[in-house]
Write a structure and sequence with these properties.
283 residues; alpha/beta; 8-stranded mixed β-sheet; 11 helices; 16% strand; globular
Length: 283
């Protein structure tokens, strides 16, 4: 648990270049606008349940895009470095996966500084518990983009740490932040205010390394854009490699020509390989 103020570390220019993407991608606002427009169109069809409350926080609401009572579930968590965006930016992703026979659930969560990163992990656990208790799915793929990839991975590791099989049958980590420790020396931590302990506790790569060799991991697809930084590519490559070390199937997939912000367009391509690959995890 965090207490007191966190001293700001000196910014490392090399790490800043790898992980602080706002200056690197001035076009991101145009991408966000396009995603919001397409997402609004999906929600406007009204074949969905919006803003279903799962917890007490102001943003503890989720959207459900159903594909039938017996359909497997894609539990998709939005990104934004735990400090920005919301679930409304990613509704467009639901359409191709629902067409592939999956119900899609997209949780929101409170943002820093209203909560700490560890508190967001707790909220996503609450959202997932709500889905399991209320929708009773037999097969769930947990997935997420950027910070959402970290949050989805924490859910997958929760199940593995219990040393039991559960409803999660696959993990799709998309340009995920899988080791938060480098962020301590970037401008991002001026918002997150993480301590070294908090960063370690919320890092999937560290949790994965501590799992027993026999922990029952589910298959993983690690997805990253071909135009992303070496840092983001390495996060995904390291997760895939260490997943395989534990004896579980894991695939690294690099989408050519996609940046950290447009990689979701590749994921949501109805005719692309990613939709088929993720749907196959739930088959």
């Amino acid at each position: 648990m965090h207490s007191g103020s966190t001293p700001l570390q000196t910014i490392d220019d090399a790490l800043e270049a790898q992980y602080a993407l706002r200056q690197r991608h001035p076009e991101r606002d145009e991408v966000y606008d396009d995603h919001q427009r397409r997402s609004a169109a999906v929600r406007a069809r009204r074949d969905c349940r919006l803003d279903v409350r799962y917890g007490p926080g102001p943003r503890c609401l989720l959207d459900i895009f159903p594909a039938g009572e017996q359909a497997p579930v894609l539990f998709f968590v939005h990104g934004g470095y735990w400090r920005a965006l919301d679930k409304s930016y990613v509704s467009f992703i639901a359409e191709p996966f629902r067409d592939a026979g999956m119900s899609v659930v997209m949780p929101g969560y409170d943002l820093v500084p209203a909560v700490r990163v560890g508190g967001i992990v707790t909220q996503i656990r609450m959202a997932f518990a709500w889905v399991v208790a209320t929708m009773t799915p037999k097969r769930v793929i947990v997935a997420g983009h950027s910070a959402g990839g970290q949050l989805a991975a924490m859910l997958a590791l929760d199940q593995a740490a219990r040393a039991e099989r559960g409803p999660i049958v696959g993990l799709a980590g998309i340009s995920g932040a899988f080791d938060l420790r480098p962020l301590l020396q970037t401008s991002i931590n001026r918002d997150l205010m993480m301590s070294a302990e908090e960063a370690a506790e919320a890092s999937p790569l560290i949790r994965l390394g501590r799992l027993p060799a026999v922990a029952p991991l589910m298959p993983l697809i690690g997805i990253v854009g071909g135009d992303e930084t070496k840092g983001f590519k390495q996060w995904t490559a390291d997760l895939v490699t260490n997943w395989q070390v534990h004896g579980a199937p894991a695939t690294y997939c690099e989408l050519a020509g996609r940046s950290h912000f447009t990689v979701l367009d590749g994921v949501a391509d109805a005719d692309g390989d990613i939709v088929r690959a993720i749907a196959a995890l739930a088959a």
